[in-house]
């Protein structure tokens, strides 16, 4: 079968729903300790994803993960997301390569966990296929991702260094990449699994969890979202919420859920259509 025929439409005959799932860097690594993975958590998450895929043969899944204490630690040291000019261009590009290496190292550990859980996953490095302009995706050949979905595979992407026409180089988060993918693949849901139970109105006190965030809710609570623990060069919770609200304005039918993947069974339940935490939407 010719590849162009394979890719039209994006949904294959056996795919009833397309979901994007991100495993946050704070969930799969200890962001307060450089280059430290949480191996038991990662193994459990892989097991939950495998169980959900077995229970839902019609579920198409694009899996993403953050860089946590791997990529973010190096990125903070070298200010990679900011791009050039830099006090030393040579140092900048050395740092660019170091961030790529650390992000790839973590991705390899994620892929080992998925492989051990017998998930047919395929890692697709954004650095090799995405170019940016001013910190936004400029071009991305989505043929491999679409082909993987059509073949019943799970494409895996992650926050990565990206060559940028304006900045020279930058970093795009998994959420940045999900936004571009969503515009082209039109998922039904985006699931963002982290450490927190959802979005708190008063972080770090954590006494008031927001069940739903709409544009007006964001404006009255944005100062309470707080700052992330450990290294994080992509803006933390507030940046995630703002990015997802902007996307939902473009795709009003889309639902975005932010929840804790640290609770046993939560990721499996979310993939099965029973998410916890905070939902981001345009209206109630």
Describe this structure in words.
The chain has 284 residues and is of the alpha/beta class. It has one domain (3-280): Acetylglutamate kinase-like (Carbamate kinase), CATH 3.40.1160. It contains ten helices and 14 strands. The strands form three sheets. It has an eight-stranded mixed β-sheet with strand order 3-6-2-1-9-13-14-12, sandwiched between helices. The longest helix has 28 residues, at 89-116. The radius of gyration is 18 Å and the shape is globular. Mean pLDDT is 89; it is low at 230-234.
Blueprint of the fold:
Layout (H helix, E strand, L loop, with lengths): L2 H4 L10 E7 L1 H4 L10 H17 L3 E7 L2 H11 L10 H28 L4 E3 L6 E4 L2 E5 L2 H8 L3 E5 L1 E5 L3 E5 L1 H12 L3 E6 L4 E2 L8 E2 L1 E2 L1 H7 L14 H15 L4 E6 L5 H6 L6 E3 L4
Parallel strand pairs: 1-2, 1-9, 2-6, 3-6, 4-7, 9-13, 12-14
Antiparallel strand pairs: 4-5, 7-8, 10-11, 13-14
Brief sketch in words of this structure:
The chain has ten helices and 14 strands.
Counted by DSSP, the helix tally is 10
Q: What does the overall shape look like?
A: globular
The arrangement of helices and strands along the chain is HEHHEHHEEEHEEEHEEEEHHEHE
Strand order, main sheet: write it out.
3-6-2-1-9-13-14-12
Low-pLDDT stretches are 230-234
- Any idea of the CATH topology? Carbamate kinase
Largest sheet: 8 strands, mixed
The portion of residues assigned to helices is 25-40%
CATH architecture: 3-Layer(aba) Sandwich
For the termini, the CA-CA separation is: 45 Å
Which homologous superfamily in CATH is the superfamily?
A: Acetylglutamate kinase-like
Oligomerization: single chain
Number of DSSP E strands: 14
Taking all Cα atoms into account, the compactness measure Rg is 18 Å
Write down the domain tally: 1
Q: Write down the overall mean pLDDT.
A: 89
Strand content: 15-25%
The level 1 CATH classification is Alpha Beta
Structural class: alpha/beta
